[in-house]
Amino acid sequence: MPLLSAPPAAVRGYQPDAADLEQFRHVQRLAYAAAEAVAKELKPGMTEKQAARLQEVWLLDHGVTDWFHSPFAWFGDRTAFQGFKVALQFLPTNRRLEENMPFILDNAPVVNGYVADIGYAGVLGENPILDLLLDDLAAHRALILDLIRQRQPMSEVSRAVDRLILQQGHAPRHKAYPFETLAHTVQPMPPRKRQTPTTLFKFGLQAVESLGRLGLVARRQGWSPIWSSNESSNHAPVPGLWAVEPHLGFHGVGAKFEELLVITEDDAYWLDDESPHVRRWKERGLWPVDATAGRAVA
Question: Could you tell me if residue 172 is inside a domain?
Fold first, then answer.
């Protein structure tokens, strides 16, 4: 294994202040509010395309000015990315929702340059497999934070997530994403040049341009804006905001959360402890979690 590299001084340039973090938190809460509102409107027979469009309309009606990516929706076995091989398969389809079918809603809005990227898993009715996956995700939120605070290499943190998923008896379905992405960095977007949000394969053009520039800078500096188990992420935690999305799959059902993790020079913390999945764990007595034991703290 190559020697662990520390992020160079230039990488430490983006450190959001308290006011910035409050704006990011506001947008993340808005994104989750959209997912929760649309989840309540889902009915049998609705398609993924309709669910994605409902999120889009809700967010635009609530002040969204651009997209990191416009909304996605996945139903049934598509929540586990069954058979996904190419990026186009992630786009919403005409797959129809049925009773007791799991779903994932995902959106990434921008408000005045501040970005969120969230994932929300639910079910139309009841699904015990989904309940199991959602419960098991709690240990991953604790594990990721604990290892980043230990200043473990980002690739090793991702590998630890993969190992825990396998120990739980599930499959790490985030590895189906392009570049096997567990997370990606998030930075403020520059002022939008266009009057209306414009997307390319669901990603905002401003986001694509910003990611391209950031990727070139990161490569020169020796780190990756895509956090994965691959050697490209074999470096110390890079300060900034990271949209983290561990994704578990089991018997054709998938579940994930996605939310922003704040990494500083010497610490880390989740941007918001009032996200829907954390509220659910608290209600079920599953949070907080002992990261070393992988179980709820008594």
Answer: yes
